[in-house]
Amino acid sequence: MYVATLHPLNTKVTGLETTGEARFSINGDTLTIDVSAEKLPPDMMHLQHFHGFKDNGDATCPTETADVNHDGIIDLIETEPTSGTTMVPFHDDPVSMEIVRDTYPKASADGTFQYKKTVSLKDLDAAFAKAFGNKDLDLDRRVVFIHGILASTELPASAASLGTIPAQVTLPIACGEIKRVQQ
Known about the structure:
By secondary structure, this protein is α+β, with helices and mostly antiparallel strands. Helix content is about 15%, strand content about 30%. The protein has an 8-stranded antiparallel beta sheet with strand order 5-4-7-8-1-2-3-6. Strand 2 and strand 3 (about 30-40) form a beta hairpin. The longest helix is centred in the last third of the chain and has 12 residues, at about 120-130.
């Protein structure tokens, strides 16, 4: 069993203290990913993934010092030095390793969501190895992010994202380091 306690990020932008928990349970050849979150921007889809380093370095959640351009926002690009790259998505098909997809969980009107998905560990390990050249997920070296703010939220031009994806979609609003726990 692995658990990440999710702590808020970018609260000045969201006006919310997004929190939650991500649990990863391994039973034989299955991995169950269970994420619950609250105080999310409501009525919208939120990207969620685990991030990490291809060389298996220890990923950590960014602190205020990650805001290297001093715009008051820790954008996705500013998380990379401490958290690495986006690795496994938590949507309808994590094994696909497809990051861009419209099947991530949607927060309810009260700003909560519950996500639960069970996948073949063998299939996910194979997809992970193909994508990153690494055969082991090394969950306890990864961090979980929840992303996304309302599209109407104004951000400074300095808030960076990937490619043409708006920063409102990728802005991290919660992060937690995955830790192995005793059952």
